[in-house]
Amino acid sequence: MEAIQVVRDSITFRELFLGLVAAGLLARVISSRPTEATKVGGFFFVFVFARSWLALVDHHVPEPYLDEFFHIPQAQVYCDGRYLEWDDKITTPPGLYLLSVAYHKLFRIAECTAHSLRSYNLLATLLTSLFAAICRNQIEARTAERDGNLAAQAFSLYSYHTALNIALFPVLFFFSALYYTDVASTLLVLVAYANHLRRVAPEAPGLLNSIWTVALGIGALFMRQTNVFWVVVYMGGLEVVHVVRSLHPESVKTPRFLTLAENVLFYARRYAEGYVHDPPLHMAWPDDWFFCLLSIAIAAVCNPVKVLRQVWPHVTVLILFAGFVVWNGGVVLGDKSNHVATIHLAQMLYIWPFFAFFSAPLLIPSLLPLVEIPTRIISRLIYGTAANTSSFPLTEASKSKPTRPDTTRQSLAFRMVDLFFLTKIYYIPYLVGTLVLSLAIVKYNTIIHPFTLADNRHYMFYIFRYTILHSIRRRYWLVAAYTLSRLLVWTRLAGSLRQQTPFTPSSTGSSARYINHPFLSREMQAAYTSATVAKPVPTSGKTTYPNVNAAVVLGTLDEPNSHSTAAPSTSTALLWLLATSLSLVTAPLVEPRYFILPWVFYRLLVPAWSLARQYPSAAAAAESTAIPSPKWVYSVGRRVDLTLALETVWFVAINLGTMYMFVSRPFYWKNASTGEMLDGGRVQRFMW
């Protein structure tokens, strides 16, 4: 009750009115009807929740806390115009302080206080939700264009709700009321990402946009040095893929190969011309990952001029960053002794349970088929037949066994390699290999940073204490949790469990243009082509961007032109994994804030889940019944992703818990033997 009273006393009616106006302006960006309750209400909820959190922090922690001891005085120095003064203990660039100065001047705030500086992150949180919505909508628009649909795309409800949940992401939301760099850094990277998504539209980017891309890249690096992996490696890599996928080589009939050499030479030439292998992620196996990377690398090397014409802004940012590293004597500003780059492969094990915990509601579709297994067994025991609850609907083409071409004249080597890839016989050894690699990483590359053990104010201290530091045996048992989490998270990124087998014609429109596996049978290649006729995408001319003025209501999943459920391409997922790896394995300290951007990009790529689409028979039966409960669930599940509402509730619950721990459970550091107060008797608080 005290917290409610604090919020009531702190937030004025004027602030609520301004928050409502701000929510209306943000809604105006995504729709011509800012008064629609759905759009305004979501942004206003984020504002009220974040403003309430700021009120609680200001009331209970009016003075700078933890890293704010460094950030707030440095920002106040900048507010006074002394831009050459710098605290050597600060390791990140001055982007946050420069934006704070601009914020104070724009809103004519006379003095840079702890409250006014913290309130900047409140604005940044609202803008983060807006640009997250823009980015997700642009992803869907680019998918529509690849399918030959250049019509104006209204903002989808999935894009809008995803953006709100990103703003509520607990690790990010917590710092919306503290003067840390995380919210502003995320915002700048999302602005750069929104610009990148426009650059990969059918219309080629102009010179001014390329210069703007360089400026945004530099701006992102001014927030945090590790952003280079996202604005250069991830976005630059995606633009390389865009170039090679836009080459449009002439169609050539695939011949019948007699030797392995003929096959390799033919596909090497085709890859060089731009016939890359880049299937949707739900159709890709590990060998597809390999041929995807190989084909794109060959195409990029063989078309350097076209690639450089597109990616030179990212190359420029990389060169400037390299120059900074040489000039500075390292990546880190200030105190370099405690921030030495180290190869820390275990980070890529920790990330999966982190994602699985925060994305738990999203993983429900991936877990549902596991519940069906005992149902099928019981049904077979009782009725003698398996229940029709399969989540893997097969098309007629995939049910019938394909007729393989005559192989009597083909070389033994070719037939063996062909069989190896077609049967996926390697997959079990692959899984075993990942387990062995994970165990080796745990044994040889588990790094415990001194900061992790020395500071019991952070949740990571307790996570390590009761897991990794508990015993050596528990470290190895955790590999099972890492592996299961990885499989669930990756499966959700691909669009729940595969609702089509990897060799089933896809419903993703022009995806067949990018199915160029050297060992895919001619019959199955023909099945792809006949099922998904490629529609040419123009390489020049005016691009039709999502029409923000055409949106009357937010688009739902059951609309014929919805692309919310489309899985990302294999190349996009692999580039995300590469950027994530580079940003984490170089950090010796395990810090939840380091996982923010990997999670945000993961969340933007996750496709929507349709309950009715995964279980069409059950949906049809439920909608024909007179019982309202299942009928309502399946009816709503046909139009929206039900897991998003659960994700919102989950995030709000976690945020309320961490807010309570921070403001209501303070403690003091004391000498265990003498009871003497340490750290000057200052109050300590729990945080991420």
Produce the secondary structure layout.
Blueprint: H1 2-10, H2 13-30, H3 37-60, H4 68-79, H5 95-106, H6 114-146, H7 157-167, H8 170-174, H9 182-199, H10 207-223, H11 228-245, H12 260-273, H13 286-302, H14 304-328, H15 347-358, H16 364-383, H17 396-399, H18 412-423, H19 427-445, H20 450-454, H21 459-466, H22 472-493, H23 522-531, H24 570-585, H25 596-605, H26 611-614, H27 616-623, H28 628-639, H29 642-664
Helix pairs in contact: 1-3, 2-3, 2-6, 3-6, 3-7, 4-5, 6-7, 6-9, 7-29, 9-10, 9-11, 10-14, 11-14, 11-24, 12-13, 15-22, 19-22, 24-25, 27-28
Task: Kindly name the structural category.
Answer: mainly alpha
Number of strands: 0
DSSP helix count?
29
Task: Report the end-to-end length measured between terminal Cα atoms.
Answer: 25 Å
| Percent in strands | under 5%
The overall pLDDT, averaged over residues, is 84
Rg measurement, Å = 27 Å
Query: Shape, please?
Result: globular
Helix content range: 55-70%
Topology pattern, helix = H, strand = E? HHHHHHHHHHHHHHHHHHHHHHHHHHHHH
Unreliable parts: 383-403, 497-510, 529-552
How would a crystallographer describe the biggest sheet?
none
